[in-house]
Design a protein that fits this description.
Blueprint: E1 6-8, E2 30-32, E3 54-56, E4 78-80, H1 88-97, E5 102-104
Parallel strand pairs: 1-2, 2-3, 3-4, 4-5
């Protein structure tokens, strides 16, 4: 598993995820977690995922994310947070934290 590059965990009805769920997956480039029931995420859930390029979190219940949750994701290019009911203030904060990332609060347009 240490060479895993993509993981698709969509539509599993997850309500929570442990902080270390992605620990040791240093080559991970894409995570799909859409269509679950996630209400919050641990601040360190994406720690050590410097190679991550795409993260899909749409269709959950993530109204707020911990400040700094995306720190260290230097290669993150696409982040989808659509259908989470985030406030405009939260959206603005996240976009400020990720100036080089395409952040979508709706569906990605191909």
């Amino acid at each position: 598993l240490i060479h895993l590059q993509d993981i698709d965990l969509n539509a599993n009805s997850f309500r929570t995820l442990p902080a270390g769920i992605f620990a040791g997956l240093l080559e991970l480039r894409g995570i799909i977690l859409f269509d679950n029931q996630l209400e919050n995420l641990p601040e360190t859930i994406f720690a050590d995922l410097a190679q991550l390029e795409s993260l899909s979190l749409e269709g959950n219940l993530l109204r707020r994310l911990p400040p700094g949750i995306f720190a260290g994701l230097i290669h993150l290019r696409r982040l989808n947070l659509g259908e989470n009911g985030m406030s405009e203030q939260e959206q603005d904060r996240i976009q400020e934290e990720l100036p080089h990332t395409i952040v979508s609060f709706d569906e990605f347009e191909e």
